[in-house]
Amino acid sequence: QVQLVESGGGLVQPGGSLRLSCAASGSIFNINAMGWYRQAPGKQRELVASITTTGSTNYADSVTGRFTISRDNAKKTVYLQMNSLKPEDTAVYYCNADRVLTPSGYLEVWGQGTLVTVSS
């Protein structure tokens, strides 16, 4: 069974920083893209940032220049460094792994979510 375990959420003041981590575990041969999504109360889940195996990245316009996604393929871990946080960044952040190759074939896997609250 493949699992994604997130960590690093919490309460931070506006202008502050947080770093989220997401580690994949289980019988995994390869993971294509990994990414972070978020869902604020009353809103739909949206893509924040994604990164491919080769390091190509994609960011939502709202976080470009403030957030940085990175991954360690050997550790099957993806990170999200969030700087200059704003109250509107408050949401549950979900880790996603797309086209995870396992002995059973390809899977898409989601983490359980970690809450980020930006407030003074």
Tell me what portion of residues adopts beta-strand conformation: over 45%
Spans with pLDDT under 50 lasting ≥5 residues? none
CA-CA gap between termini? 40 Å
Percentage of residues assigned to helices: under 10%
Number of strands: 11
Q: Biggest sheet, in brief? A: 7 strands, mixed
Taking all Cα atoms into account, the compactness measure Rg is: 14 Å
In DSSP terms (H or I, runs of 4 or more residues), the helix count works out at 0
User: What structural class should be given to the helix and strand makeup?
Assistant: mainly beta
Overall pLDDT confidence? 96
Q: List SSEs in N-to-C order.
A: EEEEEEEEEEE
Shape: elongated
Give an overview of the whole structure:
By secondary structure, the chain is mainly β. It is built from no helices and eleven strands. It has strands at 3-7, 10-12, 18-25, 30-39, 46-51, 57-59, 67-72, 77-82, 91-102, 105-110, 114-118. The strands form two sheets. Strands 2, 4, 5, 6, 9, 10 and 11 form a seven-stranded mixed sheet that branches. Strands 1-3-8-7 form a four-stranded antiparallel sheet, with no helix packed on it. A hairpin with a 4-residue loop joins strand 7 and strand 8 (77-82). The chain starts with a strand and ends with a strand.
